[in-house]
Amino acid sequence: MTDGGILCAGSLDEALWLVAFDTDLDVEWSRIFSDWVAGRGGVTVNVASDGGYLFGGIPQADTSDVGVVKTDSRGELEWKRGFDAPTQGAHNVWFLELADGNHLCAWTIQHPEGAETYIRAFEGSGGPVQWKKDYESLSTKSVRRTHDGSWFLYGSEIRGGYVMQQFGPDGAKEWRVNPETFSRALPTPAGYVLWGTRKNEVRVRALDHNRQEQWTRTYEEPGIELDVLEPNGSSGYLLASEGDEGIWITAIGPDGGVQSSTKYGIAPDREIEPVGLASEDGHYVAIGEYGDRDDGWVMSVVNAT
Fold this sequence. Notes:
Layout: E1 6-12, E2 15-21, E3 27-33, E4 36-37, E5 45-47, E6 53-59, E7 65-71, E8 77-84, E9 90-97, E10 103-111, E11 114-122, E12 129-136, E13 138-145, E14 151-157, E15 162-167, E16 173-177, E17 184-188, E18 191-198, E19 201-207, E20 213-220, E21 226-231, E22 237-243, E23 246-252, E24 258-265, E25 272-280, E26 283-290, E27 296-301
């Protein structure tokens, strides 16, 4: 949130919800969208250019649709847009505000025979579809905007291996590569970062804007598995991973060197999983869910070192 607070999103059995917290983690407002549900991968919220929020889901009224909801800065509904396309087994729904003013919605369908990814770009305020892309045998793991207004897709192919692609706002492919086995990747202001966990170790690789390797680091994994990695401003990256009865947050510098690694106890008797991480001026915020998925948690760490 632009005022320094925190916005969380989640899904109930038959609804999506948004909750805004102030800097003291007191609830400012909450909204429930009873006619929408999340894909199996949960809910992700993006901040729109006007300060409102965009998130994707599956309309309850017609489960053949996937769609996007747009709210104002207080979570009040402004518009919603559905797409008549396959959703059974939808695992994630992503959405972006493109550089040309259009919006993009992408989702992955997973089933016993494989996976497909569907992408639709449409005019703002829920207007008509401008272009679409469908990919067979591709399970998408992340879709994000890049520093220069393009957009980035990372996923795994059913036949094996990973794929990293970048497109212009009009959907034209700029490049495609098949990187080494890293389970996740995202664009950063400095280029791109890839990471994954293997044999209780975490590997992180940084690339420049031309996709040339800058460094690769291997870290002994303090937790069970690396769940989240996010850029930490100009200071490097933050990593969040599961640990026994808590989570580990590790800060690494722009060159990959470890700056700090701290364990935070949250629930002594429950399995926890971090799903989101953000930072600003030494203030870390992590959100996640418990292993039983009955409820979630928010953790704020001020003046983290």
